[in-house]
Write a structure and sequence with these properties.
With 312 residues, the protein is of the alpha/beta class. The protein is built from eleven helices and six strands.
């Protein structure tokens, strides 16, 4: 098919002669050459044999880019499971306005696409998703820690990062309600006493904290467990503190992308003066196509840290 299309495009044959010479229906040849001339597809893509009504969602180049992103994340100790890959494929289709039959409610590709993709790329190893607690426990072992420091050493010697260009980011839960009650004075004979407690007892606010090895801090980002913004929640906070809002109170993918954009604005990474960002171990919100592209575009390298499991 490819040779036939080239013959017609280079005007060495007409549609009728090419159809008869290569035994290809003339209407099929005309349709495919029309797409090439309109610039909607390449000769290579137009030459591929279709399987009935089935059309691949991504081109070969787009799938290669997807494979490259997966392997790059894995090399930074952020392995993808099957669900991560399905979500990444959906993001790729949406960002490039590609027609797809993925699940818009779940915002992920289907299993048929997933297994077809894996069969087309046998160099990718199938991964079984792990629970968060198990994943954190596995991270802290001699092999994982050794791999992290090997990778860190390679990146450090490659870019020669000074202390003010090496940053670490982690999240922690903060509560303004005391978890432990102070002792109260009462009658000796009284066996039980009561006290009023806040209705918000047990509600956590997530703090995203980022600091460099030189001791510099980026303004803290607080994620409050609510839908609507409320500027009063930042009263009496340290200067520059930023606020995000989500019903769960935990950091989400879109919030982390906002945090990364603020990090870029704060550190100003360039090709001559890049930044290394160390991320904590459990970071499912980091496996985002938008974030991967932002990291690539903003001269930032990133590694997965295992420090949360180290003994004091």
């Amino acid at each position: 098919m490819q040779n036939t299309i080239i013959e017609v495009l280079e005007r060495r044959m007409g549609y009728k002669k090419a159809s008869q010479s290569f035994n290809i229906p003339q209407s099929t040849l005309e349709d495919r050459i029309k797409k090439v001339r309109n610039g909607t597809t390449s000769v290579e893509e137009a030459s591929k044999k279709g399987l009935g009504r089935y059309k691949p969602v991504f081109s070969a180049a787009q799938e290669d880019e997807l494979v490259s992103d997966i392997l790059q994340m894995e090399s930074r100790l952020f392995g993808f499971n099957l669900s991560d890959l399905q979500i990444l494929a959906y993001e790729l289709a949406i960002r490039n306005n590609i027609t797809h039959n993925f699940n818009n409610d779940k915002k992920m590709a289907g299993k048929c696409w997933l297994y077809s993709f894996l069969s087309r790329h046998p160099n990718l190893r199938l991964r079984i998703p792990e629970a968060t607690s198990i994943g954190r426990a596995i991270v802290f072992n001699q092999a994982a820690v050794g791999k992290f420091f090997t990778l860190l050493t390679q990146v450090y010697h490659q870019y020669k990062f000074p202390p003010d260009r090496i940053w670490n980011v982690d999240e922690t839960g903060i509560t303004t309600v005391p978890s432990k009650q102070s002792r109260l004075i009462s009658m000796r004979e009284k066996r039980q006493i009561g006290t009023l407690v806040s209705a918000e007892r047990g509600t956590l606010v997530t703090a995203e904290i980022c600091m460099s090895t030189s001791g510099s801090y980026m303004p803290t980002i607080l994620i409050f467990p609510r839908k609507l913004p409320n500027a009063q929640l930042l009263d009496h906070t340290p200067p520059g503190t930023l606020a995000e809002f989500h019903p769960s109170g935990w950091i989400q993918t879109d919030i982390f992308v906002k945090c990364f954009k603020k990090f870029v604005a704060f550190t100003h990474p360039t090709a001559e003066n890049p930044v290394l960002l160390l991320l904590h171990g459990h970071a499912t919100h980091i496996k985002s196509l938008e974030l991967i592209n932002l990291v690539r575009e903003n001269n930032t390298d990133y590694n997965r840290s295992t420090y949360h499991s180290w003994p004091p």
